[in-house]
Amino acid sequence: MAKKEPSKKHSEVLENTVQAFKNAFDNHIHHSLARDEHTVTKHEKFLAVAYAVRDRLIDRWIKTQETYYEKDVKRVYYLSLEFLIGRTLGNSVLNLDVESAVEEAVAELGMTLEELREEEVDAGLGNGGLGRLAACFLDSMATLELPATGMGIRYEYGMFNQKIKDGQQEELPDNWLRLPNPWEIARPANAIKVPFGGYVVTWTDDKGKLRNRWETKDYVLALPYDTPIPGYRNNTVNNLRLWSAQSADEFGLAYFNNGDYLAAVQDMELSETISKVLYPNDSSVNGKILRLRQQYFLCAASLQDIVRRFKKLHDGEWKLFPDKVAIQLNDTHPAISIAELMRILLDDEGLEWDEAWDIVTRTFAYTNHTLMPEALEKWPVSFFEKLLPRHLQIIYEINARFLAKVSLKWPGDTARLSRMSLIQEGGEKMIRMAYLSIVGSYAVNGVAALHSDLLKTSLFKDFYEFWPEKFNNKTNGVTPRRWVRKANPAMSALVSSKIGDNWVKDFSEIKKLEKFAEDAKFRKEFMAVKLENKKRLAAYLKQTQNVDVNVNTLFDIQVKRIHEYKRQLLNILHVIHLYLQIKDGKKVTPRTVMIGGKSAPGYWMAKQIIRLANAVGAIIDSDPDCKGKLQMIFLENYRVSFAEKIIPAADLSEQISTSGTEASGTGNMKFAMNGALTIGTLDGANVEMREEIGADNFFLFGLTVEEVQELLAKGYRPRDFYEKDDDLRRVLDLINSGFFCPDHPETFRPIVEKLLSSDPFLLLADFRSYVECQEKVAKAYADKDKWAKMAILNAARMGKFSSDRTIEQYAKEIWQTKACPISIK
Ligand code: CGF
Question: Is the CB of residue 666 below 6 angstroms from any atom belonging to ligand 1?
């Protein structure tokens, strides 16, 4: 018999030369896609390039995972129901540092890299800020060489596509997996069984101790799909593991044998609905039981996976667990993980409560992203009884032990006990997920200084008094790779020509640009780049929405989810005010106002706001008096790849939420980094941005948090503002008259009614200050040279807002993880 060759480790790293890429494209067109040069489509060319790039990621990916294992490093798991990744090709090419080779090789295919990028569909697995933050964090964790893994759900349908039809939002399914996703690798061998339902069995162990066991016949399979996450110009490639639900039944054999083939298939489909679709709600909860199933599905699959990896090296050494694992909860959506880890340690591993609780509370950390009451998750106890009976028991026990401690500190304070209980009584019993997250974590953070302070003084006041040391702030950031270097290549090249390109990795270096604000030639060049970006956006709008925009006007942009607290309506009121000014024959600075964003499908008022924006835009468009002076456009289907075109083209960034409502914002950061000036309130991260940028380079308006609270406390009467402000009255009266919807004049009356009766986000109180501030903007824009100076200072002073800085703080102050550099031969 022939002797077996000793197994050889695959250590070869693929070449990155132009020729190597050409060969790779060729090879993939033929062998992966079974095409030749005559039959290959544009999209398949994209796939061939993506595969060639992925091959290069894979070498480093394997090496990274091997190194983490060999060095037995402490790992971070970032658990999130959302990862709003967008496109991957451009960023992978950038991070791998193969841009010029790929660019040159792609020319052979008769295309440019930019054209190929347009072929890629966005991975829209998130709603907005929270999901995009998770994606920026992945990029930063890999760039900082941190041993980190993202864990989420591989939704078959991501965020819906928005169509504007007759001026109104329509939702179309985002079937992003209809075309092959070249970045993911399925790992069926690592599938995990996730139980649901059933009942709890109590039994006695051999020491006579009562133990519990969860029993059920209802399982769903969690199938992992892995996506490589490369760091910028290093060898680290981390993993994003997304779980897909599959039926665990072997094709419902029982039904099959009974001849009920269709019932068997239906049963399978039911399990698979778990990862079917992303819930399209940002800043509000959806109390559907399927959403709870999604949450537990992610938690159970992830926790089993984490525990399995830990046991490979440290079976039985449970005390070591918090030294090897940190789990970050991205909001409360994955909070059931706390009860799940308790269940595993108590029931599967046989630990005692105190031991298990000590491990759990040294493992989890929780990030809060909102103060909005409607976004605070609470689950009916009845849902848990049905779906997660053992977890319910565990949560009750956590609560009982926690409340015992509270009453020790504040004896007799029953009001406090009921305020702090994990279970909300009175009416339907509910589990307060934020409280579970605080009690089960060793660190709790907000996402901007103001937000973290408000958590301590309002939402979580009782908990802060009990555990002040748990609370901290981690101001959000965004990755400069995607949001400056990739989105704005022309500005990046200009910047790098002056200060070198190390700012891409160390964004604090962007400060070096500051002195060029005084350089007249640089100012011209900087604004020439802005104009190019405006032209690029204009061309895209022409192509996709068939609108013509004048690039010589002020581009005044507000893109984000549509929500009353974000006050797109205030922006629209200002546009109507400008319209009236024009009709009065007053001179205005020519502007193009753009508003873009999606409304949750069931959010009626947000949909009305979209409708009003479109209606006002249409009236202005049809009025010859406005030509060259004012235009308002609704940007359809706002998403990551669109943002990359919009943001570099902005002159003015609208960050106008009511003070105390926007936890941080991250769009605000992206705009300023790209040289837009901000008009904004003292809300979220605007406060810190203004500190960095300087008050003179920021257009501030509106009430402060304290003033908002004061006004509400003394009884806010919006009608008072309407009555004493002629401009405001004219604007609201015009809407009310049906002018913007002559066929159905009553259409927008509910908007005006709400503003006049309750106006919960104080638009009327802030209207005057906003209009005056916009006048300052208009004046400043008229002085081109001064504007250029301010724009450069904005871009130069945003160093703090790189997600690298944020992640460094998480790593040092929360996770206690260190960089683990990867070397390849
Ligand atoms: O998270 C948000 C966003 N809507 O997704 N919240 N949530 N939930 C906040 O409202 C933003 O202010 C914040 O920037 C973002 C990420 O932390």
Answer: yes
Q: Does residue 537 form part of some domain?
A: no
Which one, of 663, 656, 683, lies nearest residue 282 by Cα?
663
- Domain housing 266: 72-87+122-166+189-474
Residue 25, in any domain of the structure: no
Interatomic CA distance for residues 632 and 577, integer angstroms: 13
Catalytic machinery residues = 369, 560-561, 566, 666, 670
Question: Is 639 within a domain?
Answer: no
Cα distance between residue 709 and residue 715, in whole Å: 10
pLDDT digits (tens, 9 = 90+) for 205-250: 999 999 999 999 999 999 999 999 999 999 999 999 999 999 987 6
Can you tell me which atom of ligand 1 is nearest the CA of 665?
14
Establish whether this prediction's ipTM goes over 0.95.
yes
Per the CB < 8 A criterion, the answer to whether 83 and 240 are in contact is yes
Residues 469 and 558 in one domain: no
Name the pTM for this structure.
0.97
504-519 in b/e form (b: 16+ CB < 10 A) is: bbebebbbbbeebbee
Asked if residue 308 has pLDDT above 90, the reply is yes
Burial code (b: 16+ CB inside 10 Å, e: under 16) for 774-786 equals beebbebbeeeee
Q: Are strands 218-230 and 192-196 parallel, antiparallel or unpaired?
A: antiparallel
**Ligand 1 mean position, distance from CA 803 (Å):** 15
Packing angle, helices 520-545 and 784-796, rounded to 10: 90
* Neighbour-count burial of 537, counting CB atoms closer than 10 A to its CB (0-12 exposed, 13-18 middle, 19+ buried): buried
Q: Which helix (H) or strand (E) holds 45?
A: helix 42-71
Distance CA 345, CA 348 (A): 6
CATH number at residue 215: 3.40.50.2000
pLDDT digits (tens, 9 = 90+) for 555-607: 999 999 999 999 999 999 999 999 999 999 999 999 999 999 999 999 999 99
Minimum CA distance residue for ligand 1 atom 1: 130
* Number of compact structural domains in the chain: 2
